[in-house]
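Form P-L/3: holo structure prediction, ligand guanosine-5'-triphosphate.
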Amino acid sequence: MSTGSGGDRTVELESSLEASISSSCSFGFSRARIFKIIVIGDSNVGKTCLTYRFCTSCFPERTEATIGVDFRERTVDIDGERIKIQLWDTAGQERFRKSMVQHYYRNVHAVVFVYDITNMASFQGLPAWIEECKQHLISNDVPRILVGNKCDLKDSIQVPTDMAQKFADSYSMPMFETSAKNTNDHVEAIFMTLAHKLKSHKPLILSQPPDNTIELNSETKSTFPCGC
Ligand SMILES: Nc1nc2c(ncn2[C@@H]2O[C@H](COP(=O)(O)OP(=O)(O)OP(=O)(O)O)[C@@H](O)[C@H]2O)c(=O)[nH]1
Ligand SMILES: [Mg+2]
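OUTPUT (holo model):
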């Protein structure tokens, strides 16, 4: 679901989600915790592919630059509890971020900063993304992780692991290198680790009945043919 020109649609969707949540609470449906995780970084680093990989287990054959914010979600079971992981895949290109409003940064539970290990500029751009989060008043308590993507391109590495690790340490963030393209590069484990961390730290924030899911994944699937 691209929300550049259709930014209002996300606002509407989120409002209707919140409305359905509050009405469902009063009818006593069972609840699922929702974790909103925002994914940020330069254009072309693979934010869309990473979120797509986690939510569909596939690598998209082709992607287009994200406009505004795309939204994907997956429900997982952690220690017997249903947890809905919402990934907010943001545009890296400045001209496509104009439609991103303060609203997108509301109630963020975690931030994933992504760079491309084959592109030094995307690594050097990270402080600006960290600063942007600060400007949108994302609290320092919100867990953050650093993800270096495109590990499969071993011959083109520009960002050494120890350099990235030092940077992550200086911001007290865990750092992972991975590949959205390779099935065995632990994309799943990265997001699940974050979800486990959130589950053990966050109180119940949002809830909705099990059969009241807004199925955006199916829309995502039709947008990008799966390369698996
Ligand atoms: N080799 C390789 N290519 C990747 C990987 N992840 C993404 N790509 C490619 O990198 C390009 C950009 O991927 P996207 O996921 O669209 O990048 P993005 O960060 O969402 O870009 P914006 O939406 O413009 O911010 C595409 O051609 C992908 O196929 C990866 O892990 N390995
Ligand atoms: Mg994208």
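COMMENT: The first strand starts at residue 33 and ends at 40.
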